[in-house]
Each structure stands twice: as C-alpha cells, then as structure tokens.
C-alpha cells in the first residue's frame, strides 16, 4: 500500500535516518580516529530532526493511533523505543560512547523505523478515514515545522562505503 500523503513527511525523515543507519553499519567497526566525527554527525541529526520527529509522533501520531485498541500495545512499544533512543542519543557526544554503542543505536533506530512504517503507519492508513488522515497531516506539518528537512552531509569518515 502506498503511504498516505499525511504520513509522507515522517516517512521522508525515516529514509534519512535509515541512510545514517546503513552508513554506520557499513563503516563498522568504526575506528577510534573516526568515532568523534560519527558522534558529531549523529548528535546533529538528532538535534535537527530526530528529536523533533519523536515529539511529533508522540504528540500527534501516537494519540491518533491509540484511538484504535489494537494499536495501543504497538504504540507502547514505540514509546519505549523512543525512551531508549533518546537516552542513548543524549550520551552520544560523551567520550564514554564507544563504536559498539554507535552501532547499537543504529540497529535499534533501524528496527524502530521499520516497525513504524510496516506496522503502525500501514495499519493507521487502513483504520483511519481520509478526513482524519488529512487532519493528522495538518497537525504533523505544524509539529515538524522546526525540523531542518535537510540531510547531514557525510564527511570522508562517515560517507557511505561499499558493503563488505
């Protein structure tokens, strides 16, 4: 099923976050010399887009999904994911963050995004009427207005490399 236009802004942000996850996966194991550069890029993406994205989902999407009893357990799981990811993104700039921590964040973020896209968004489109989806889209536009909507340009250390 095609993504409803009301959810497309979130799906575009998901694509950018997944691209980061792929780059981290392909760069792993990240060398000590490159770790600071990765931390900086991840922190910037969280500040400029992911943090705002999480808030929009929590304020707009999750309450709409919770109107459907079958989606409540899924929304609860996604909220737990947000908590774990926020906690780990907050630690990312710390010198105590290792390359394996960066990989763990990328793995958890990718799984979270896939769960939202394949389960939550798909089911919401099936359950919600077009008018409610349109209203949801207007609320999301407002909630996402402060995000940068721009990709972080990878550095030499963080660019996409051929898979191993």
Describe, in short, the structure shown:
The chain has helices at residues 8-27, 32-65, 72-91, 99-127, 130-143.
CATH homology group: nmb1532 protein domain like
Count of discrete domains: 1
Give the CATH architecture: Up-down Bundle
How is the main sheet built?
none
Write structural notes for this entry.
The protein is mostly helical and 164 residues long. The protein has one domain: Up-down Bundle (Four Helix Bundle (Hemerythrin (Met), subunit A)), CATH 1.20.120. The protein is built from five helices and no strands. Helix 3 packs antiparallel against helix 4. The protein is elongated, with a radius of gyration of 16 Å.
Question: How would the blueprint of this fold be written?
Answer:
Blueprint: H1 8-27, H2 32-65, H3 72-91, H4 99-127, H5 130-143
Structural descriptors:
164 residues, Four Helix Bundle (Hemerythrin (Met), subunit A), mainly alpha, 71% helix, 5 helices
């Amino acid at each position: 099923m095609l993504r409803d236009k009301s959810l497309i802004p979130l799906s575009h942000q998901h694509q950018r976050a997944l691209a980061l996850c792929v780059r981290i996966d392909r760069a792993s194991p990240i060398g000590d010399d490159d770790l600071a550069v990765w931390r900086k890029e991840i922190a910037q993406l969280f500040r400029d887009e992911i943090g705002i994205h999480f808030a929009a989902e929590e304020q707009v999407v999750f309450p709409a999904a919770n109107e459907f009893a079958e989606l409540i357990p899924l929304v609860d799981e996604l909220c737990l994911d947000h908590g774990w990811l926020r906690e780990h993104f907050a630690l990312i700039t710390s010198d105590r963050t290792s390359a394996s921590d960066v990989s763990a964040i990328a793995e958890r973020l990718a799984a979270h995004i896939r769960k939202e896209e394949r389960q939550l968004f798909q089911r919401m489109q099936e359950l919600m009427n077009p008018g409610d989806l349109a209203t949801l889209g207007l609320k999301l536009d407002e909630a996402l207005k402060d995000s940068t909507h721009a990709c972080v340009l990878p550095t030499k250390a963080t660019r996409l490399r051929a898979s191993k």
